[in-house]
Design a protein that fits this description.
Strand order of the largest sheet of chain A: 3-2-1-4-5
Low-confidence stretches of chain B: none
Number of helices of chain B: 2
Largest sheet of chain A: 5 strands, mixed
Number of domains of chain B: 2
Structural class of chain A: alpha/beta
Mean pLDDT of chain B: 85
Strand content of chain A: 5-15%
Number of helices of chain A: 5
Helix content of chain A: 55-70%
Structural class of chain B: alpha+beta
CATH superfamily of the largest domain in chain B: F0F1 ATP synthase delta/epsilon subunit, N-terminal
Order of helices and strands of chain A: HEHEHEHEEEH
Strand content of chain B: 35-45%
CATH superfamily of the largest domain in chain A: ATP synthase, F1 complex, gamma subunit
CATH class of the largest domain in chain A: Alpha Beta
Radius of gyration of chain A: 28 Å
Strand order of the largest sheet of chain B: 2-1-9-8-5
Helix content of chain B: 25-40%
Shape of chain B: globular
Number of strands of chain B: 10
Number of domains of chain A: 2
Largest interface: A-B, 38 and 32 residues
CATH architecture of the largest domain in chain A: 3-Layer(aba) Sandwich
Oligomer: heterodimer
Shape of chain A: elongated
CATH architecture of the largest domain in chain B: Sandwich
Low-confidence stretches of chain A: none
């Protein structure tokens, strides 16, 4: 009868796992909802800032600024945003392998990671990580975005790199999240897909001067951008985890069903064997 | 008075959206009032008080460093934080002020000084708005 006991044991362990995945799914649903709310508000800011920058660039062709000009070299810094935890389907893998592929095309680079999984990935690839932010992945705040912006701008200002690319997962919908690489610095007009809303022509004035305005505007823009990609990534992570967990649940249900069937069958088998034993014993006895 | 369309947004929320008569902003070049029909312009602002007049009511709010774009069709202000006096956490601002003062005293580089000065300015501006213009 050890067979029955073994199946029973397996049923229990699958049941326990199912409980965990169920709990994780529920948590992910709640967290994702929060992240999506944040993202909806942030999208307005994000789009407006981008179209404003584009607007400014279009109306003042002669602006020269270090943040708007591409330096002749090709040293690229990557900000790679992944999750702090696994158990989210292919979420981490997709964004990390895209970053890795992108990096192979650019010889010299800095690597800045957000999230434990990103750091672990580069460690396993023997790629040195120059800066890491481990706390910003799960619950991004403006403060985190400000910290990242400050460090990136410092590196850029010290002329240690010519280009900053962020690789993150964009949340398109509950079911679709795609990794994306976006150039943050220098800010080039062709990188901004948002359409400029206003149609007026003529020069814009700057107070106190174009340089000063851009000195304020660019960090603001970066903080907004980084905050927004962090939110996108965390919303994607939760969505991916939710999906992974719900399929794990379904899988567990299926396994439980099969196991229960097997359990009943083996129990029935045992009963039948016992009955047969009894019956044959009696028929041998009671002659 | 003529009105214009004003939008004030932060990464976390839309602070103001609607018709306004005038708005006074803490521009880096000095405080400045924008009214309907203003010339297209971009202002960089430092942490300070933004005074909004809409529907005949004038209110002050705190605005951190950001920028304001004036266009013929609308005026948009961007900042990391904009807060009405009632939303300002006085104790936090007070703590931030003390921290910033301490940091300003022992900053190591010009860039750090810049950051600390801005932090101090933010704290002062918050406290000023909270106390209705009086310190």
């Amino acid at each position: 009868m050890s067979d029955t006991a073994e199946i029973k044991h397996r049923i229990k362990s699958v049941g326990d796992t199912r409980q965990i995945t169920k709990a994780m799914e529920l948590i992910s649903v709640a967290k994702m909802r929060k992240a999506i709310e944040k993202q909806a508000v942030n999208a307005a800011y994000f789009n407006s800032v981008r179209s404003t920058i584009k607007d400014i660039m279009r109306h003042s062709a002669d602006i020269r600024h270090k943040y708007l000009m591409h330096r002749p070299n090709d040293r690229t810094a990557y900000i790679v945003i992944a999750g702090d935890k696994g158990m989210a389907g292919a979420f981490n893998h997709n964004v990390l392998s895209m970053a890795w592929e992108h990096m192979q095309a650019h010889p010299v680079h800095y690597v800045i990671t957000v999230g434990q999984m990103a750091r672990a990935f580069f460690e396993s690839k023997h790629q040195a990580v120059d800066l890491e932010f481990t706390h910003a992945a799960t619950n991004p705040t403006l403060h985190d975005a400000r910290g990242i912006t400050r460090d990136v701008l410092e590196l850029y200002d010290r002329n240690l790199m010519d280009e900053v690319v962020v690789v993150f997962t964009r949340m398109h919908s509950m079911a679709v999240q795609k990794p994306e690489a976006v150039r943050l610095l220098p800010i080039l007009e062709e990188d901004i897909p948002e359409e400029v809303r206003s149609t007026f022509t003529g020069e814009i004035l700057y107070d106190p001067s174009p340089r000063e305005v851009l000195n304020v505007l660019v960090p603001q823009y970066l903080v907004g951008m980084i905050y927004s990609v962090l939110i996108h990534s965390s919303a994607s992570e939760h969505a991916a985890r939710m999906l992974a967990m719900s399929s794990a649940n379904k899988n567990a249900d299926k396994m439980l069903e099969a196991l229960n069937l097997e359990y009943n069958r083996s129990r029935q088998d045992a009963i039948t064997t016992e009955l047969l034993d009894l019956a044959s014993g009696r028929s041998a006895d009671g002659r | 008075m003529n009105k214009f369309y004003l939008e004030i947004i932060t990464p976390e929320k839309v602070f103001f959206r609607g018709e306004a008569e005038s708005v006074n902003i803490p521009s880096i070049g000095g405080a400045c009032t924008i009214m309907a029909g203003h010339q297209p312009m971009v202002f960089a602002t430092e942490p300070g008080t933004i005074r909004i007049t809409a529907d005949g009511v004038t209110r002050d709010a705190f605005m951190s460093d950001g920028f304001i774009e004036v266009r013929p069709d609308e005026t948009i202000a961007f900042a990391e934080a904009v807060e009405w006096p009632e939303d300002i956490d006085e104790r936090r601002a007070e703590e931030a002020r003390e921290r910033a003062e301490e940091m300003v005293r022992r900053n190591r580089s010009a860039a750090e000084y810049q950051l600390n000065r801005l932090a101090l300015q933010r704290a002062f501006a918050r406290l000023r708005v909270k106390h209705g213009g009086k310190r």
